[in-house]
Design brief:
281 residues, disordered N terminus, alpha/beta, three-stranded antiparallel beta sheet, 40% helix, elongated, six-stranded parallel beta sheet
Length: 281
């Protein structure tokens, strides 16, 4: 190990010590983003090396049949990879912190369900979860596995994809969608949509209210793995700032919350959260 590496490690340890002292004795709310799941093999939207892409908007999904077919084909292939991902050290560290009474809950912008699978008990899926599908006409909800089975039965070519480039929202890059069949709601025949918030869609009021209540009841806020580019995250950060709560941002790269944080840790979420759990839990 070089002298430079040793010095960097020492600085990181000192930073974690300082953050631990700030958080000690406080009830902490946590807001997480795509950067937390990169160690589980799910890529970030905006991190270094993230491919440029145009995410599906709600308006396009509803109004363009071909785009909707492309989305469902890609989303299905992405879902197969998504559900194979496993919680990483960052997810498990948050479980440990919650079990120790340090954090009151997790608000996540991710739709991968990894917080719940890791064992976190109080999780607010701000942007929904890929494991559910809803009918836009009657509101009936379906498990994603049942819809996936119908998709594969109607489109046998989906059963053996050679290569899939997965995206953070569970979508994947698919070009050939000619003849693709999209399942309809088995209750009313309406249009089905994964239970996630698309671009151009608003976070449901009751879900944001639940997230806001976590921040309002907390004594501090950790933002982990989010660039805070989405309005819902910024609104929660502003609630904490207005209450003058200590805000800790953990992220590789610049975020919109850096100027409002008491401490910014330029670090990976897995190692940083594990370090905090070791000191506080």
């Amino acid at each position: 190990m070089s002298i430079e590496t040793l010095q960097a490690a020492a600085v990181a340890e000192e930073a974690l010590d300082a953050v631990s002292e700030i958080l000690r004795g406080r009830l902490v709310a946590v807001l997480t983003g795509a950067g937390l799941s990169t160690d589980s093999g799910i890529p970030d939207y905006r991190g270094n090396g993230a491919p440029k892409r145009s995410p599906m908007t709600f308006q396009t999904f509803v109004g363009d049949e071909r785009a909707r077919k492309r989305y469902w084909a890609g989303s299905h292939l992405g879902w197969r990879r998504f559900r194979a991902a496993e919680p990483n050290l960052g997810h498990r560290s948050l479980v440990r912190l919650e079990a120790s009474g340090i954090i009151s809950g997790v608000i996540t912008q991710n739709v991968d369900g990894l917080h719940t699978r890791a064992g976190s008990r109080h999780v607010v899926d701000l942007h929904g979860s890929m494991d559910r599908v809803v009918c836009l006409s009657c509101g009936q909800a379906f498990g994603r596995d049942s819809v996936a089975a119908r998709l594969e039965a109607a489109n046998p070519e989906l059963g053996s994809p050679e290569a899939v480039r997965i995206n953070p929202d569970g979508d994947a890059e698919v070009s050939d969608i000619d003849g693709f069949s999209v399942p309809a709601c088995t209750v009313c025949g309406g249009m089905l949509k994964p239970n996630v918030v698309f671009f151009g869609e608003l976070v449901p009021t009751e879900r944001f209210t639940e997230a806001s209540a976590l921040v309002q009841a907390a004594d501090a806020l950790i933002v982990a793995g989010s660039s805070l580019a989405v309005n819902s995250g910024i609104r929660l950060l502003e609630q904490a700032r207005r209450r003058k709560l200590p805000i800790v941002v953990i992220n590789r790269g610049v975020t919109k919350g850096d100027g409002r944080a008491l401490v910014k840790l330029e670090a990976g979420t897995s190692e940083a959260l594990a370090g905090l759990a070791a000191r506080l839990a």
